[in-house]
Design a protein that fits this description.
The complex is a heterodimer of chains A (about 150) and B (about 110). Chain A is an all-alpha fold and about 150 residues long. Chain A is about 70% helix and about 0% strand. Among the domains of chain A are: about 60 residues, Up-down Bundle (Four Helix Bundle (Hemerythrin (Met), subunit A)), CATH 1.20.120.1200; about 35 residues. The radius of gyration of chain A is 22 Å and the shape is extended. The C terminus of chain A is likely disordered. With about 110 residues, chain B is mainly α. The chains are: A mainly alpha (about 150), B mainly alpha (about 110). Chains A and B meet through helix 1, helix 2, helix 3, helix 4 and helix 5 of A and helix 1, helix 2 and helix 3 of B.
């Protein structure tokens, strides 16, 4: 529904439902921390960003022409073939044995925090540099060019 | 040391999660190739990222390995940063072209 909806705002709302469904799957898999992070980061931040951008540029009308018919048929065939290949490759995996030692304390915040800040300390600190660079880039791209207008 | 497996994999096999993630990924690919609106293409890329996240978490719980979930954490962080920069680029394009139809970005085409 996200892909086929005419109105972009409807697509965004369907994507929000999609993210809620993925959060539910994370909860089924006992990944509590990631479910909440998913909700807060994706639904709370990224979707709000999408909605505010669409509202800012006033794109909520359905003013989109369609791609040529050949390109659309090609797109459906390509993604259908991809889905066919991926499903066919993994079809024989239905009797995989379960590894014996599973603990329900794997996905708790305490355990994940211990792994995150112990083995992955450098990527964790470096992601702050990543965020800084993306913030600087976003602000820089959004500035109006005052020098060109003042000339 | 637990002898009884307490999670979802005693009810649903891992194959279902693999197939679900593959189908979601293919729908995301369809969305990227099918639409002309740049924002919907962006949202399809987010869909693909989420499908991969789901598969990573499923395998992390399957193998009782916390590395998968930490990797998902970083993927989410990178996706958030990417959305910020991508939407800034989109706004700049819109300001210059007054349209976000990707078929109008053909100045580099021969």
């Amino acid at each position: 529904m996200t892909v086929f909806s005419r109105n972009p705002v409807h697509s965004i709302l369907y994507l929000v439902i999609f993210f809620f469904a993925i959060t539910g799957h994370y909860l089924l898999l006992n990944a509590q921390f990631l479910a909440m992070v998913n909700l807060i980061v994706y639904v709370g931040a990224i979707m709000v960003l999408f909605l505010s951008t669409i509202m800012l540029m006033n794109l909520n009308q359905e003013t989109e022409q369609h791609k040529p018919a050949l390109a659309r048929i090609g797109a459906v065939i390509a993604s259908g073939l991809l889905m066919l290949v991926l499903v066919a490759v993994f079809k024989r995996a239905d009797n995989m044995p379960l590894p014996p030692d599973q603990s329900p304390m794997l996905s708790t915040v305490k355990n994940l925090g211990a792994v995150l800040l112990d083995q992955y300390l450098f990527p964790f600190e470096f992601s702050s540099v990543l965020f800084l660079s993306s913030m600087i880039g976003a602000v820089l791209l959004s500035k109006k060019e005052k020098a060109a207008e003042a000339r | 040391m637990l002898n009884v497996v307490l999670n979802i994999f005693s009810v649903v096999s891992i194959q279902s999660y693999i197939i679900l993630s593959a189908v979601l990924f293919s729908i995301g690919v369809l969305g990227v190739l099918f639409r002309r609106n740049a924002i919907i293409i962006f949202m399809s890329v987010e869909m693909m990222l989420n499908a991969v996240n789901l598969l990573l978490v499923a395998f992390s719980v399957y193998h009782n390995d916390a590395n998968g979930q930490v990797f998902v954490f970083f993927v989410m962080a990178v996706a958030a940063a990417e959305v910020a920069v991508g939407l800034a680029i989109l706004v700049t394009i819109f300001r210059n072209l007054h349209s976000i139809d990707i078929d109008e970005l053909k100045n580099l085409k021969w």
